[in-house]
User: Which sequence fits this backbone?
């Protein structure tokens, strides 16, 4: 993936997240992706360009159609970064648990 910042900027828009959710079900054309939205096909195409620029989707040429699909490597990279963040948070909570357990042990020793 080119850059996590670009990917998260693309994911900041609810329409683009909805497009990705639809593509999680399988490949789709621009017209198929435009159906549930109250916007023009060119507006959907602009969203697709942002997603493609972020490396989150790929397009292929099939005659006059350009079906879109998720880019699994990009999604995996985001998942790896989020997993790293989850692990860091878990380590922080484990340290907090250790501190709280130590405090409880010390409180028990102080009482006569």
Assistant:
């Amino acid at each position: 993936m080119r850059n996590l910042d670009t990917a998260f900027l693309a994911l900041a828009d609810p329409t683009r997240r909805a497009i990705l959710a639809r593509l999680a079900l399988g490949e789709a054309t621009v017209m198929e992706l435009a159906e549930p939205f109250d916007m023009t096909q060119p507006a959907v195409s602009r969203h697709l360009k942002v997603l493609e620029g972020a490396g989150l989707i790929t397009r292929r040429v099939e005659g006059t159609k350009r079906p879109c699909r998720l880019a699994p490597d990009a999604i995996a990279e985001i998942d790896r970064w989020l997993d790293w963040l989850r692990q860091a948070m878990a380590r922080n909570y484990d340290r907090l648990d250790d501190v709280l357990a130590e405090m409880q042990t010390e409180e028990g020793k102080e009482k006569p």
Summary: The beta strands are 57-59, 68-70. The longest helix spans residues 72-110.
